[in-house]
Amino acid sequence: MLKEDKQAIIEKFRLHENDTGSAAVQVAIMTSRINALNEHLKLNKKDNHSRRGLVMLVGKRKRLLEYIKNNDLEGYRKLIKELGLRK
């Protein structure tokens, strides 16, 4: 992920002026990384090291989403809709 891409994600999902690490921002960045890893694994089916990293990243994102859901249900629904995670 390029620095400019990451900065654009932070700008879109931040909660206030200096926010770079809130749970919503972290989930958005992880989603971008997960999508990139999915594309990589479509081309490199035997890359098990990257597959393990993907599984760990999905687990971490799941835990953060659960945290957001428990603390800010409306924010959780908005985040899920913007990222297109659930149907």
Can you put this structure into words, describing what you see?
The protein is mainly alpha-helical. The model has no long low-confidence stretch (mean pLDDT 95). α1 (3-13) packs across α2, α2 (23-43) packs antiparallel against α3 (48-71) and α3 runs antiparallel to α4 (73-83). The chain is 77% helix and 0% strand. The protein has a single domain (23-83), classed as S15/NS1, RNA-binding (Helix Hairpins). It has helices spanning 3-13, 23-43, 48-71, 73-83. It contains four helices and no strands. The protein is globular and about 40 Å long.
Tag the structure with descriptive keywords.
mainly alpha; 77% helix; single chain; Helix Hairpins
Topology summary:
Elements (H helix, E strand, L loop, with lengths): L2 H11 L9 H21 L4 H24 L1 H11 L4
Describe the structure concisely.
The protein is mostly helical and 87 residues long. It has four helices and no strands.
